[in-house]
Design brief:
Layout (H helix, E strand, L loop, with lengths): L4 E10 L8 H5 L11 E6 L1 H7 L5 H9 L7 E6 L6 E9 L3 E8 L9 H14 L8
Parallel strand pairs: 1-3
Antiparallel strand pairs: 1-4, 2-3, 4-5
Helix pairs in contact: 2-3
């Protein structure tokens, strides 16, 4: 983070099967198995989401650490029975710019996380011992 970031908001939408069994849902007796429409199941911070959805929202924690922190980043989680991909929409308002971006991740064999997560870890591990590094 450089300059002043006024706000960071992330809206995550996931297929229902990737969220079923999350501790937050169990603690609050929220049953999403039979929903028919997109349903907001959480609004809070990435810190709270890390506790309530430990297998699902690592991307929100990474975003918060790169920006305004895990307590000042706003996060919404939606369960959407019509989705086949994990989607993340990010909105940032700063003193130097305002921008938004979105990504649609293909789920891995584990429906709770995207394939891109494992590929990113592999890429990072390779870069640790690479004699030459191009890009990020």
């Amino acid at each position: 983070m450089e300059g002043t970031i006024n706000s960071v908001k992330m809206v995550t939408r996931k297929p229902v099967r990737g969220l079923v069994g999350a501790p937050y849902l169990q603690k609050h007796n929220i049953n999403i198995a039979d929903i028919k429409e997109p349903t907001l199941i959480f609004r809070g911070s990435p810190r709270e989401a890390a506790i309530g959805f430990p297998e699902n929202l690592n991307v929100s924690v990474a975003l918060s650490l790169a920006g305004v922190g895990p307590d000042k980043t706003t996060l919404e989680i939606w369960a959407d029975p019509k989705l086949s991909r994990n989607t993340h929409a990010i909105e940032v308002d700063a003193d130097s710019a305002s921008f938004s971006m979105a990504i649609q991740n293909v789920p891995s064999q584990n429906p709770k996380t995207g394939l891109i997560t494992a590929l990113s870890v592999i890429s990072y591990l390779r870069k640790l011992s690479a004699p030459l590094r191009v890009g990020s």
